[in-house]
Amino acid sequence: MEHMDAVVIGMGPGGETVASRLLAAGRRVAVAERELIGGECAYWACIPTKTLLRPPEARAGADGTAGLSRPALDWPALRAYRDQMIRHLDDSAQVKGYQEQGALVLKGQGRVTGRDPWRVEVGGTEVSTDHVVVATGSAALRPPVRGLDDLDPATVWTNREATTLTEIPRRALVIGGSAVGVELGQFLARMGTNVTVVQRGPRLLDREEPRLCALVTDQFARDGITVHTDTEVTAVEREGAEVVASLSDGTTVRTDVVVLAAGRRPRADGLGLEEAGVELDRTGLVVDEHCRAAPGLWGIGDATGQALFTHVAKYQGRLAADNILGGDRTADYTAVPRVVFADPEIAAVGLTESQARERGIDTATAEADLTKTLARPWTYGTDPRGTLGLVADRERGVLVGAWAFAPLASEWIHTAALAIRARLPLSVLSDSIIQFPTFGEAYLIALENLDL
Ligand SMILES: Cc1cc2nc3c(=O)[nH]c(=O)nc-3n(C[C@H](O)[C@H](O)[C@H](O)COP(=O)(O)OP(=O)(O)OC[C@H]3O[C@@H](n4cnc5c(N)ncnc54)[C@H](O)[C@@H]3O)c2cc1C
Ligand SMILES: NC(=O)c1ccc[n+]([C@@H]2O[C@H](COP(=O)([O-])OP(=O)(O)OC[C@H]3O[C@@H](n4cnc5c(N)ncnc54)[C@H](O)[C@@H]3O)[C@@H](O)[C@H]2O)c1
Predict the structure, then answer these.
(1) How high does pLDDT run on average in the chain?
(2) What is the mean pLDDT of residues 221-242?
(3) Is the pTM of this model over 0.95?
(4) Does one domain contain both 129 and 185?
(5) Atom nearest to 159 CA in ligand 2
(6) Is 236 in the same domain as 253?
(7) In this structure, what CATH number is given to the domain that contains residue 255?
(8) N or C end of the chain: smaller count of CB under 10 Å?
(9) Is any atom of ligand 1 closer than 6 Å to the C-beta of 313?
(10) Which residues take part in binding NAD(+) (predicted)?
(11) pLDDT tier for residue 50 given thresholds of 50, 70 and 90
(12) Distance CA 146, CA 245 (A)
């Protein structure tokens, strides 16, 4: 049996980060992937959604730009570019790339078969290893809706069917109104689909600042999207060519497809971990602040249920690799950016006001309407919108949270992320010189509005 320094199970962005770092350090690494190297992110999540959202965003941008006429949407051309961006669901170049870096690439379902030393089996090949990294990701949750399992699979879309769609449906019912529901809902609506979002929570993006959620709700109304909050789909049934959905608020929605956007389930079961004495819970593989689940066993990315983002999976991947290489790094999740790539972009980091108060923080908040005070929104478009909110700790004089609803917020939210992470004094932040004219100048305005 061949002995490795490390075996990485699951080659999404998390697994790829660990494997690349260990290979670069000259370690003997085996990688196991049962589908495609690149994971959910590259083929059915981040990359296709951002590719699909861009043309409708650019088109809306043209509508609000002086001296520019509205470009036409070209679905076959967008579909072809989406297919190129998801590599036509072919990872042969990635397999070759890892082999050339010296990895043993095992295509198949990985499973832990023993401990002391760790042993992993993939498609009949078994190797022993000093370290195992579990990076197996997550899968779309199926909400408990009566009749859902009886529908033709072609009419029930998870993120996989939605991101690889070949035709734009006439009507879509989206179950769930957070990141997946908002991105897919806006994309479909702007491509001409009649979209209804059914959200169990009290607001769209219900874990975010209520003011931010209100701005998103207003945007959805502008996009012609119908939203039912505090509502669930109780049953679905096929009636001729259409699907009829019954909602808990007593209404009925007729649709062509049902899109599942009701959350994700970490994929840490079925890997032989429990049999090897490793703890799993409802949120996935339980890891400590070093990303360690047991001596020589590491967990990263969605499989740990920590914060389901690619940038977190990659951060944990860097951290786990450095620890495998002898380091002693601990994870800090205080300033993880959370961006929903709708138009305008929705960005947040750190705590909301109520989370800060629950932690006993002496909380000050402020909001800035970018269109009232800044030049950049007006040089950018004729009907600009943009808001920045801040949440500060009065006693410590630092930022603890921020949110923004504005163009390119995904880029400039990082000022707040860094300030929160570095516990940068508010006095330094408000004394900084920010490029004119940018959206980032909003920080100076909002800081002035903080009642400290
Ligand atoms: C629609 C959508 C859009 C998103 N957009 C963004 C975004 O814009 N930005 C962002 O940061 N996050 C986004 N996310 C979240 C992001 O996709 C995940 O957080 C990220 O993919 C997690 O990476 P990972 O490496 O943990 O797992 P994954 O990307 O899920 O990869 C896990 C890999 O493990 C493999 N695997 C599983 N079990 C086994 C096994 N037993 N043996 C071998 N291989 C196995 C799988 O086949 C898969 O390739 C989005 C999610 C969705 C659903
Ligand atoms: N841009 C990004 O970074 C990005 C984009 C998409 C997804 N993601 C990540 O992927 C993960 C999954 O996203 P998601 O939006 O599917 O899940 P989520 O868990 O973030 O939100 C699910 C939403 O669905 C609602 N819901 C749950 N069950 C329901 C039901 N039966 N009926 C109606 N509503 C129901 C909840 O109230 C909640 O608002 C998230 O952690 C997210 O961060 C990130």
Answers:
(1) 97
(2) 97
(3) yes
(4) no
(5) 16
(6) yes
(7) 3.50.50.60
(8) N
(9) yes
(10) 176-183, 263
(11) very high
(12) 10
